[in-house]
Amino acid sequence: QVQLVESGGGLVQAGGSLRLSCARSGRAPNSFYAVAWFRQAPGKEREFVAALRSIGGTVLYRDSVKGRFTMSRDNVAITVFLQMNNLKLEDSAVYYCALKSWMPTMNPGDYANWGQGTPVTVSE
User: Is residue 75 pLDDT above 90, yes or no?
Assistant: First the structure.
């Protein structure tokens, strides 16, 4: 029932910035859920980027994006954002928004709802 739509990806030069958005339609399974960003580069496994708890708004990040990426949400919790600063070549990937019930995890297999992804390409 829940649908997620990512937007904001594109081509950016190394050192530049992008802001990704994930808009949710439909209701989450319950009031306690997590929304996360994952990314997947060609030929590589999908990897965790960041996750936000619906209750409390706590955000966790993978080490390689700490200090560069910031995850946030609007004041009605319909849209979540990923502000990506100081982008590096290794950040290039398709970025996916995902949702799961209860506590956030770093395992993509735990997430039941996925968007279609938005590609981010960082160039030299």
Answer: no
From first CA to last CA, the distance across the chain in angstroms is: 40
Please give the DSSP secondary-structure letter assigned to residue 17: -
Q: How far is CA 47 from CA 17, 25, 78, in A?
A: 20, 24, 24
Q: Is 91:84 a contact under the CB 8 Å cutoff? A: yes
Tokens of 87: 């982008």
Quick one: tokens of 54?
Answer: 């619906």
CB atoms under 10 Å from CB of 78, counted, come to 11
CA angle 118, 88, 84 (to 5 degrees): 55
Q: What's the pLDDT at 28?
A: 82
Q: How far apart are CA 8 and CA 61, in angstroms?
A: 19
Q: What is the pLDDT of residues 34-73, one digit of tens each?
A: 999 999 999 999 999 999 999 999 999 999 999 999 999 9
**26 or 52, which is more confident:** 52
Burial of 14 (0-12, 13-18, 19+ CB in 10 A): middle
Give the helix/strand (H/E) hosting 20: strand 18-25
